Amino acid sequence: MKFYDCQSAPSPRRARIFIQEKGLKIESIEVNLGKGEQLTDDFRRINPRCTVPVLELDDGTALTENAGIAAYLEALTPEPPLLGTSAEEKALVANWNARVELEGLWAIADALRNRSKGMIGRAITGPTDYAQIPELAERGLARANEFFETLNQRLGNSEYVAGDHFSMADITAYVCADFAAWVKSGPTEAQTNTKRWLELLGDRPSLSG
Amino acid sequence: MKFYDCQSAPSPRRARIFIQEKGLKIESIEVNLGKGEQLTDDFRRINPRCTVPVLELDDGTALTENAGIAAYLEALTPEPPLLGTSAEEKALVANWNARVELEGLWAIADALRNRSKGMIGRAITGPTDYAQIPELAERGLARANEFFETLNQRLGNSEYVAGDHFSMADITAYVCADFAAWVKSGPTEAQTNTKRWLELLGDRPSLSG
User: Which end of chain A is more exposed for a tag (fewer CB within 10 A), N or C?
Assistant: First the structure.
């Protein structure tokens, strides 16, 4: 297996944390998104979508989405479980992970990619150039702020995002919280449940990188 | 269990097909989105996010995302498998399902919700009103058309969307193909691999509703 990563980007960071939480050592190749290495012919042969993360299996199959990478690694290395154990746990991990993506991560991406000077003409990841939409950056920011209120409410009722155990939903939410700083959003001081959760997660080595 | 559905909407349709493919009978309650029933106090008590589908478990837990509903039902009723069996199958189902959502479903939703007269001020599902962004409707349509080219390419290499078996990725892609008609997108006559796949799926009773 080979893992195509980018240290500065939120999506590959999710996969990187997942791999480290599983205790796996996988050969890693850095793809410099700042220099546009994802758009080169060499990288297109690995992933025509021109995105990271990619987990390339030994038969050449390329997993290009966090959902696919997580499902594979959970099946291959079930311990420690990061996608839940019982039916209800599996459901809540999948449900909260989807909510954090939809309401949090994609909203922050809208906010960043539609106003960053470095992303003019590159408002969507992938091989096709799409123009920025400034109104969408504003909407994304409003939705991101709304999401962090939702997260704080949830963490008032639940130790971790999806229940009693650390899971993929925590990984996605943690990456979200850091990523949000790029658009001046993120958990506020008043969101004390989120603060408790960040302290709970604080010393996990996987999150420090 | 109770299943909160809406016959005319694509997201609950995905869950409805999943339930039927599993051969399950679950009490179903129709939520009329056209009349705004998802925004009533009664429905907010079930799902404060004001969206369908919702699968309400007997302990009151509300699964509000297709990912959560599918994970629960697959764990509860493993046969027939809709999320894959081997590690690689599970990975490819999750990977393709995520791609169909991101590149297809959300793009079509952008195209529809940001220009439909019935959705003025309701460009995002959920409790908060967000204004339409006409430029985003255009971008969504362009991305949807790009997605159907991707789908056709994939179906040139694979019998079903994620591999050799019918899976959740087929459900999402099929719902996408129908949903796209609302914005005058969808598979074209020239996309013959998709045409083959639509014929292959054509007689599944779950897809007729």
Answer: C
